[in-house]
Specification:
single chain, about 100 residues, alpha+beta, GMP Synthetase, Chain A, domain 3, 6 helices
Length: about 100
């Protein structure tokens, strides 16, 4: 068996994630974890459900007025979530 250059654990994990296409899913979950940081504790309290699938975050908001306000700032929220994730993985937010 031929020896190659030693790799760090971070490099090995990064290579594996890219080969298995796991990196995008991990970054989507990272963006979703930052939801409370982006919208603040008041809005997060009115969020009853949230999940991410293929770059689309679906959020259930218990207040209709707040839902409308969040729809107006959707592009700003997406930009902040993508910035915190480190890559542009969130494409859309759906409010229900």
């Amino acid at each position: 068996m031929k020896r190659t250059e030693a790799k760090s654990i971070a490099e090995i994990i990064g290579d594996f994630m890219q080969q298995e296409d796991i990196e995008t899913a991990v970054l989507e979950q990272k963006a979703l974890r930052h939801w409370a940081d982006v919208v603040g504790p008041g809005v997060n309290r009115l969020t009853t459900e949230r999940y991410v699938d293929n770059g689309v975050i679906t959020v259930k908001i218990s207040s209709a007025a707040l839902r409308n306000d969040l729809m107006l700032s959707r592009s700003h929220l997406i930009a902040q979530l993508n910035q915190l994730a480190g890559k542009p993985v969130i494409k859309e937010i759906i409010f229900r």
